[in-house]
Amino acid sequence: MQELSIVLMIVSIVGTNGQENGMERKGTGDLNLEVVYERNFEEPVIDVIFDTATVTIEEARRMGWKEEAFTEDEVKRGKVLVSYPKVVLVGGEEGEGYWGWYIPPKGLPRRIKMVRFYSKNGSIIKELQVGKDSIEYVYISPQKKFFVVSKIPWEDAPDHTGGILYNSQGEKIWQIKNRVSPICVSDEGSTVAVYPDWQVPPEPGGDFYLYDSTGKLIAAVENPDPTEVFPVFARYSQDGHFVLLCYSGETVPPTIFFLIDEKGEILWEKKLSEYAYSSRGGSIDIQTHSWIVGTAFKGRANFYGFLMDWAGNLRWIKPLNSWGDWISLISQSGERVYFCSNRGYTLSMEIYSGEIAWECNEWASQNRRISSPRGHGFSEMYELSSYLIVKGGSTIFLFDSETGKLLGKLEYPGKTIFLALHNETIFVIDATDNRIEGLRPKE
C-alpha cells in the first residue's frame, strides 16, 4: 500500500493547550495517529474557514503546532507553511435566543449563533451575530471565499426576507432588501435567491433569481410547472461559471433540473417525471464540463443514485439499497461516484455504468423506522489522495477509495464532531470539548 500522507486534525475550539509531544491516539485497524497540533476555543465550533501563513517555527509552536508537525528541512530553514482558523462558525443551543442555522454544502443543518474572524495569532478581529431573535441561514461558497446570511420568514413574520453577502474578512459586500432570500453563493460573490415560503412543505410556485457580485439582478429562471413544483436547491460549480437549479415537489415528483451559466442563460432543462428530490435528504455534486451526480427518491423510501452528463442526458439511475439522508461525491479521478447515507451505508459505483464497485454496510437497517445508533450514521464524506474519509456520528472511518477496504476508524464516544478539508489536511471539529487536536497517521 502506498504511504499514507493524510493529516487528520480534530478542530475543537481558544488558546493552545497541549498534550505531551509524541503522544499517539490509537484507532481500530492499522491507524496509529500522533498528535501534532492542539488548540482550544471558548465555545463550540461547527465549521471553519482556514487560511495559510508562512511563519517561524517558534510562531508555529505558539499557534499550537508540535514538533512532530515539522520536517527536518523546515526546522533547518526556521520557517513553515501552516494552516490556521481564519473564520470560525460558532454553534448555538436551543433556548439561547438564537435562531440561526448553518446550511453546509453537504450534510444536515447545524445551529449557529455567531461568525468570528481571527488573526493568524488567534486574536479575535470581529464578530457577527447570526439569528438573534429571528431565523437566519448561513451559506458558504465552494472554496469558502464568501458567505451569505439569509433572512428566512416564519408564520409570525412572513416578510422576514433578504440577505447580506460577506467576504472571508467579514466585510459586507452588498445587501438584498426585497422579498427574495439567497440560498447559495459562488466564489465570485454571485448568488441565487428565491421567494422563501415558511410553510412545510412550501406551496408550489416561485422562481429562481440570479444576482451578480455587485448585487444586481441579472436573470430569472421561471418555474416550468408552478402548480406542482417549487425551488428546492441551487448549487454553483467549483469554478463559479455554472449553476444547477432544482425544482421539485419535495416529497412528490416530478423533479426538474436546469443548468445555467453565470449570466443566467439556460443551457438545458431535464425532467425526472417519476422521482422527487428532497432538500433535506438529497445531495448533488458537480464536476464542471463532465458530470452531475445526485440522489432522488421514488415512493415512500426508495432512494436512487443518478448520473447526468454535461449536456443534461440521464446516463443512469440506480437503486441505492438503503434510505436516509444522502451525500453524493464524484471521485477526483472522475471514474467513480460515492454515496453515503446517515443510515450507516457507503458505496462506490463505476461512473460509466453505475455498477457497484464496493459497498460498506456499517449498520444500515432495512427498517426505515429504526434510527442509526450514534456514531454510525454517515453524514460527511471527503476524498483525499487514494483515501475516502467518512464521518459517522462520533467516529471517523478511513477507506481505501479503490477497494473499499476499511483501513481503520477513530472513535470519539459521546462527542459531536464535524470535518473540514484544507490544503490536503482533514480537520475534525470537536464541538463538545471545544478543542483542536491535530492528528497525523504514523506508519
What portion of the residues fall into strands of 2 or more residues?
A: over 45%
Query: Biggest sheet, open or closed, and with what strands and sense?
Result: 9 strands, mixed
Q: What does the radius of gyration come to? A: 22 Å
Q: What's the helical proportion of residues?
A: under 10%
Distance N to C terminus? 11 Å
The number of E-state strands comes to 36
Structural class: mainly beta
Overall mean confidence score, pLDDT? 87
Q: Residue ranges: pLDDT <50 for 5 or more in a row?
A: 1-20
For this structure, the quaternary state is: single chain
Shape: globular
The number of helical segments is 2
Structure description:
This protein is an all-beta fold. The protein is built from two helices and 36 strands. It has helices spanning 57-62, 72-77, and strands at residues 7-11, 24-26, 28-29, 32-40, 45-56, 79-91, 99-102, 110-118, 124-129, 135-140, 146-151, 163-167, 172-176, 181-185, 191-194, 208-211, 217-221, 230-236, 242-248, 255-261, 266-272, 284-287, 291-298, 302-309, 314-319, 326-330, 336-341, 345-350, 356-361, 378-384, 387-392, 395-400, 406-411, 417-422, 425-430, 435-441. Strands 5, 6, 7, 8, 9, 10, 11, 12 and 13 form a nine-stranded mixed β-sheet that branches. A six-stranded mixed β-sheet has the order 2-4-36-1-35-34, with no helix packed on it. A five-stranded antiparallel β-sheet has the order 3-33-32-31-30, with no helix packed on it. A hairpin with a 5-residue loop joins strand 10 (135-140) and strand 11 (146-151). The model is unreliable at 1-20 (pLDDT under 50).
